[in-house]
Amino acid sequence: MSDITKQSLTELVESIKNKKLSSSEVTKAFIERSEKSKVLNAFITEDFTSALDKAKKFDQKPNLDLKLPGIPMAVKDLFCTKNVKTTAGSKILNNFVPTYESTVTENIWSEGAILLGKLNCDEFAMGSSNETSFFGNVQNPIDKNLVPGGSSGGSASAVAGQLTPITIGTDTGGSIRQPASFTGTVGLKPTYGSCSRYGIVAFASSLDQAGPMAQNVKDCALLQEVISSFDAKDSTSINFKRSHYSKDLTNNIKGKKIGIPKEYRVDGMPKEIEDLWQKGIEYVRNCGAEIINISLPHTSYALPTYYIVAPAEASSNLARYDGVKYGYRANGENLIDMYEKTRSEGFGVEVQRRIMIGTYVLSSGYYDAYYLKAQKVRRLIKNDFDEAYKKVDAILTPSTPSSAFKIGEKTNDPVSMYLNDIFTVPVNLAGLPGISIPAGHDAKGYPLGLQIIGKAFDEQNILNIAFAIEEKINFKNKITDWWIK
Amino acid sequence: MSKKSREYLINRRDNQYEVVIGLEVHAQVLSESKLFSTSATKFGAEPNTQVSLVDAAFPGMLPVINEFCVKQAIKTGIGLNAKINKRSVFDRKNYFYADLPQGYQISQFKDPIVGEGKVIIDLPDGHKEVGIERLHLEQDAGKSIHDLDPQNTFVDLNRSGVALMEIVSKPDLRSPDEVSIYIKKLRSIMRYLGTCDGNMQEGSLRADVNVSVREKGSKEFGTRCEIKNVNSIKFMQMAIEYEANRQVDLIEEGKTIDQETRLFDIKKNETRSMRSKEDAHDYRYFPDPDLLPLQISDEFVNKLKSEIPELPDDKKKRFINEFKLSAYEATILVSDIEIAKYFEEVVAKMGKNKDIKLAVNWITGELFAVLNSKNLEITQSPVSAKNLAILVNLIKNGTISGKIAKTVFELMLKNDEDPQKIVEENDLKQQSNPKALEELIDKIINNNREKAIEYKQGKEKLFGFFVGQAMKASGGKANPQLINEILKKKL
Amino acid sequence: MSIDLKTIKHISKLSRISVDDQRAKKLVGDLNSIFDFIEKLNELKTENVKPLTSIAETTLKLRSDEVQSKNIREQIIKNSPQDNEDYFVVPKVIE
């Protein structure tokens, strides 16, 4: 059984299609491993019984033409799932059961996949360590007491720990790529508008994007193929020609021009990260790609911009959690009292902090100085990329400025926590696709990731580059199953 | 232009104050579904039965804009002679309230869909131009019901998300009467366009009224107060009267006026401060990131322009020119699209040899009187335009007299019957045969010899007596003109 | 610039989140350090830069005016903390 969970998605699909394995066998294997992995705290809601039923049903009448035939998978608890509790990692939605399905998960189920459960995440996806979740922090399978990153920490931990063959996360400032990097997995943030936001609990609407997380690039490409679709229910969804990402995947990147932005060489970056980056540069060069030094001059302004734009949008997006229509309600003497108590008791510290920042930067007298300013700088950041893409096809950077840190290490210093997203945030601000792939280990044996940033709608290209690097690196995640007795 | 005699001024001691009024009219867009969701907009549905997941702001729900509402707003803009903005932006107006499920209202703040325009209003002594500042699209909120339970407030979200047009006027109005005329004109234009039904009872048309006062002749504006959400013209007028006088009293007492939002209390006929809401007044507007800027092409606007029907001002001009109506008559007939339609149908049905003046008199006289007394709209008129046209023709060609026509009209009210038929069945045709009338008059003179002599001796008053006798003898059907002629001859 | 306790109280009111004094004091520190970091944007001259409101490179799509949602009152009200089958119910609103 344990062999099953070690298989990649591609292998599992193959096994089910060849009838070497049934969906029930696969589903059971992941459930059994998950049962033994509770200490990781990757799940908020388990839906195992129903998953087994669905697997049985699939096996009775298997449709093997589907892309994810009978494949069990867990998803981040930010995606609304019909009749399955959806919390966004928050007390304020602790009892919320949607009567509807997000477009992205709908796409997944209609390709034959089966829901295993809902995965832990930072509250409303606000965090870089999964420590802001109302349902407790998540352990990184790499090492005890290590954060898995965030906000898609449960998702990253579940994929790395083989509790699910693949998963989906959401990425507003790095929430897929940073945890992928911290857990030695692959995570793709697609171009803004590639995956529908319909039915995803919103954090910052102009930045949020769902994306696949997997053990390897090919699995990632396949899942991206499934989840990306034009959706008329999302006004920001874009109708562009989507390629068959997995079918068209190639390691031939000869002649591709890869940009290396000098501004990503930040102060205080550990030497091992710098070395990893150099190694990556060598690999792509060896694959026949051309390395070109570029400049993204406004890089250092990305985080301050992000910490205006994202909280501003969040402060408004989270106004609907007021105890009236759904979710947690505190008793109040009157309406306003009820609001203030509900939101004070229902939201955690980090969410409250961001709502306050967002409220402040939008408030009368400060709008121009903060929000408008940030929108202008956001254009400058986007222009940087536009300029760079006149010369290069993709950009190679480290995914994070450090490897995974200890639980509790940064909780008291929000700014140092925020700095974790320094390499990922510009990509969201510019609406571009970015992928993080595991590329090596630091001295402690913790995984480190490289990020490839593409042109808008050019997911295929960065998947190809990632695929080529992956082959050269031959990365092996060091997971000892320490949590299984 | 308003003349001195019509000026609305408030007098205190030796001081005269002028009232300055601007309106923010909220007009519900006529559409099947809501502005950003696909739920119905019907009035009077059971509570919370026209609410979608989007309207109730469930997590992950997103707005998708209704094209028809966009068209309706542009059409209205064209009707207000306003600039249509090719690019407009939807913003979020953030505040917390029980009937605002998103915690924000999607509205347009900096870049509205329609810019500056104007409306001409007819005053008793001329006309006046009222400037339009802007028109924007926004969502309506739900309804909080406070009086069904002592401890709790109930919330109905049926209205939540219904499309509204907010039409902001410049502070060009100077009296409660001007406000009334302006609102009626706005309502009329929108009804012509089919963009808003203007039904104030059902809340399709409400207004926030901005009132300030200043000493007569002053060029500066005074501090204004905004009276929120007044839903009838009468209440608007009452609220303005009260508020203007309140402000004048404050000035006279040497006190200052606070710029604030006020509420009109219908029962007490007074406005009062809504200060409790003031601290939550920082709306933190910002562009809605769930929506992109709305871009409209010239083609789109031109197509809509070509669909605009004749509007009241043009129609009035045409009525005056084509039908030789007085400005007063034309104003009445174009004031509502349905009245204008009725009138034009009457005109069309009258055929070649028509008496339009007579038709106007019948519509604005007898017909309006009946509609008023029975509290009916013209669309519910018991007499169809076709039959009214026949009736007017019967008078015009001498088949019946005006007096008999009134009898016929009374009979028409029952089943909207063909007046021709009524005349025939009841034998009401006018007696215009001179021979028969001469015989009839001879008889009357013979029977009243003494009176005839008195008349000849100079008692001219008696002429009327003979006319009356003749009409009576003919059962009212005698042609009065002929009777006059014959009587004069015979007497 | 710096954010004081009064400002924190004001923002907490605007965002309808009650904070006690201890929490408010902590927030003063947090927000000041975050805004110190944000102030970096003032290094940039942006007078002539057009603000970027939406990153999606597309225009707003318009849907046709059709009623598609039915009466789903039960679904809508099901998750509410308090209701009476017809309405959402909230504590009395005081004007």
Give keywords.
heterotrimer, A: Amidase signature (AS) enzymes, 3-stranded mixed beta sheet, 16 helices, B: alpha+beta, Arc Repressor Mutant, subunit A, 3 domains, 9-stranded mixed beta sheet, 3-stranded antiparallel beta sheet, 15 helices
Q: Tell me the total number of β-strands of chain B.
A: 16
Count of alpha and pi helical runs of chain A: 16
Q: Helicity level of chain A, as a percent range?
A: 25-40%
**Biggest interface:** A-C, 69 and 52 residues
Strand content of chain B: 15-25%
Topology of this protein?
The complex is a heterotrimer of chains A (485), B (491) and C (95).
Chain A: H1 2-6, H2 9-17, H3 23-35, E1 43-46, H4 48-60, E2 72-76, H5 103-110, E3 114-119, H6 153-160, E4 166-170, H7 177-183, E5 186-189, E6 210-214, H8 217-227, E7 257-261, H9 271-286, E8 290-294, H10 302-317, H11 335-346, H12 349-362, H13 368-388, E9 394-398, H14 414-418, H15 425-429, E10 434-441, E11 447-454, H16 459-473
Parallel strand pairs in A: 2-3, 7-8, 7-9
Antiparallel strand pairs in A: 1-3, 4-6, 5-6, 5-10, 9-11, 10-11
Helix pairs in contact in A: 3-4, 6-7, 8-16, 10-12, 10-13
Chain B: E1 9-12, E2 15-28, H1 67-79, E3 87-88, E4 91-94, E5 104-107, E6 117-123, E7 126-139, E8 143-145, E9 152-156, E10 163-169, H2 176-193, E11 205-215, E12 225-230, H3 233-252, E13 261-265, E14 270-273, E15 286-287, E16 294-295, H4 298-306, H5 312-323, H6 327-334, H7 337-350, H8 356-374, H9 385-396, H10 402-415, H11 419-425, H12 434-447, H13 449-456, H14 462-473, H15 480-490
Parallel strand pairs in B: 12-13
Antiparallel strand pairs in B: 1-2, 2-10, 2-11, 3-16, 4-5, 4-15, 6-7, 7-10, 8-9, 11-12, 13-14
Helix pairs in contact in B: 2-3, 5-6, 7-9, 8-9, 9-10, 12-14, 12-15, 14-15
Chain C: H1 5-14, H2 21-38, H3 73-78, E1 88-91
